[in-house]
Specification:
The protein is mainly α and about 180 residues long. The chain is built from eight helices and no strands. α4 packs antiparallel against α5 and α5 crosses α6. The N and C termini lie far apart (about 60 Å).
């Protein structure tokens, strides 16, 4: 696919034709590509050992079995931690979820494929124009606030909230203690 620079872009046609992209150009991403198993793609480069200790583990089938169980348990603990911290303010369990996926992807092909799909989806999102990204994020925030408000109307003000905040929430229409 040949890309052309935007009219106000400093990139030259030679840079773009050489494979570079002009600032603000969308990068074409095929999100379905990473669901092809790695073995079918003919490469297992991501699984080659960079460390001698792991190469020794892979050489011993019994040690490899227990190592993979340990990796699975560490990844599972991170995923459970992500579920437990998902309700916290801020990013919640997203970083723990991604770290658990990274741990699993070090040993399991399916986890590597899922992680690569997330990476391509994020690259696709970054290829959007800045205004579209901002509108998407604003829409997500509005959906989260609407969900929170709906739950507050349905269930009332949570008892664990500080009294000062609960008084402020009482002022919203339809929200009761």
């Amino acid at each position: 696919m040949q890309r052309h620079p935007a009219p106000d872009s400093p990139a030259t046609v030679a840079e773009v034709d050489a494979g570079g992209s002009a600032p603000g150009d969308a990068i074409p991403v095929d999100l379905a590509d990473d669901f092809t198993p790695v073995a079918q793609k003919g490469t297992r480069d991501w699984q080659k050992d960079r460390w001698a200790w792991r190469a020794r583990i892979r050489a011993n089938p019994i040690a490899l079995f227990w190592y993979r169980i340990g990796v699975a348990l560490v990844g599972l603990l991170m995923m459970i931690g992500a579920a437990l911290t998902g309700w916290l303010p801020g990013p919640g369990g997203i970083p723990l979820f991604m770290l658990g996926l990274v741990v699993w992807s070090s040993e399991f092909t399916w986890a590597h494929n899922v992680m690569m799909w997330f990476k391509r989806a994020f690259d696709w999102f970054l290829g959007w124009p800045a205004r579209a990204r901002q509108m998407f994020i604003a829409g997500c925030i509005l959906c989260a606030l609407a969900t929170w408000y709906g739950l507050a109307v349905w269930h009332g003000v949570p008892a664990w909230l500080p009294e000062a905040l609960a008084r402020q929430l009482d002022r919203l229409p339809g929200v009761e203690r």
